[in-house]
Write a structure and sequence with these properties.
The protein is an alpha+beta fold. It has helices at 3-16, 21-25, 28-33, 36-51, 66-69, 71-82, 136-155, 176-184, 196-201, 242-259, 302-310, 343-361, and strands spanning 116-123, 162-165, 212-215, 221-225, 231-238, 265-266, 270-271, 283-290, 313-317, 330-335. It is 38% helix and 14% strand. The structure holds arginine.
Length: 363
């Protein structure tokens, strides 16, 4: 594709798919002002949005410095997605202090002790390219580094557990049946090689090499290796107490930080992630809860989505991105904001929002 053809395609997408933020913010003059190597780099970043016109974002960073290098193109997309005006300065702040706000849903209603809680953060090691630009050797080398860190966690009674690799021929390799079992248990990530957004970006390349998952002994602290980001570090628990969940993640994350080379960060965008939607805290906190009243027993999410939006929450089915509601109105709710909000603010928003939806459900 010549630059002229590419630009023409982007204009077509801009008309037909107004939601595609890459097409919405593509700046022809800026693109043409770049030298050839830079143009090629930018093309690779936005290719996913050109090949997938229905993209919401339509770009994945390939290297940790892309957000600074290509800021004239990426910053407006980031602001648009995260709802930050052009005049507002972006400076990601962090706050992991649970002390000030008790966030125990079980204290509101004992039935809320049943909810399944999950919080994950995305992290990328600064000395490697991001997953879209890694070669097979780099994927395997990164997995090796991570596995060494997990070996230390496994020795620690507070973590224990095991590392499961799906890289063919490695020491911790699990078979297909065990992999499927872990996917069904909502622990392991799905086969990325069927995701067209990730494919075009190169993020799912060399599948399943360099991929795996650490699970703690209590199965409440997990780390994905080689998915959309180098590492997806998460805590999952039942019980309704979001602060306990949050602390589990904080401590595990701190241990890993000490055991691994420095993670990529930016003063503006916080934690550097492949997808611009995850920048900032890089955190997704969610609850799986049953809201049969607000969803007509899981058949219709329209009303719930509308109510949730006013609370700053996004709703999806319990089966993950793009899924429908499960049996009995089982849905996944999660604060939408990532950039410009601290970790604790995200947690607080989830707690307040879940409490408000629960009150509506039972009104
Ligand atoms: N690349 C897709 C798009 O632009 C997904 C964006 C958000 N989801 C994600 N898993 N990063 O629509």
């Amino acid at each position: 594709m010549t630059p002229d053809q590419m630009i023409a395609r982007i204009w077509t997408i801009r008309k037909a798919n107004p939601g595609n933020l890459m097409a919405r913010h593509f700046d022809e003059d800026y693109f043409r002002s770049l030298d050839e190597p830079a143009r090629q780099r930018l093309e690779r970043i936005i290719k996913t949005g050109i090949e997938n016109p229905d993209s919401q974002m339509g770009a994945y960073a390939m290297n940790p410095d892309d957000y600074d290098r290509f800021a004239p193109m990426l910053d407006p997309m980031i602001r648009d997605f995260h709802g930050i005006s052009a005049e507002t300065e972006i400076a990601q702040k962090h706050d992991w202090d649970t002390g000030a706000s008790p966030c125990d849903l079980g204290a509101i209603d004992a039935r809320l002790k049943e909810v399944s809680m999950r919080v994950r953060v995305a992290r990328n090691v600064g000395s490697f390219p991001l997953p879209g630009a890694m070669n097979k050797e780099q994927r395997v080398a990164l997995e090796k580094l991570a596995a060494q860190a997990f070996a230390r966690l496994i020795e620690d009674p507070a973590f224990g557990g095991s590392y499961f690799s799906i890289t063919p021929g490695t020491a911790n390799e699990i078979d297909a049946a065990e992999y499927d079992r872990r996917v069904k248990a909502h622990q392991m990530f799905k086969d990325m090689s069927t995701d067209r957004y990730l494919n075009v970006a190169g993020i799912s390349a060399d599948w399943p090499h360099g991929r795996g998952m650490y699970v703690s002994g209590a199965e409440d602290f997990l780390v994905w290796v080689g998915e959309e980001d180098h590492l997806r570090i998460m805590a999952m628990q039942h019980g309704g107490n979001l602060n306990v969940l949050f602390e589990r993640l904080r401590i595990g994350l701190e241990c890993l930080q000490d055991l691994l080379p420095a993670f990529a960060t930016s003063p503006r965008y916080g934690n550097v992630t492949s997808c611009p939607t995850n920048l900032g805290a890089g955190m997704r906190a969610s609850l799986h809860m049953r809201l049969p009243g607000l969803t007509s027993n899981g058949r219709d999410l329209t009303r719930l989505k509308r109510e949730a939006k006013t609370l700053g929450l996004a709703v999806r089915g319990a089966g993950g991105e793009h899924s429908d509601a499960g049996e009995g109105g089982l849905v996944d709710i999660s604060p939408s904001a990532r950039l410009g909000v601290t970790e604790m603010e995200i947690m607080r928003r989830l707690y307040d929002g879940a409490a408000a939806l629960w009150a509506m459900e039972n009104a």
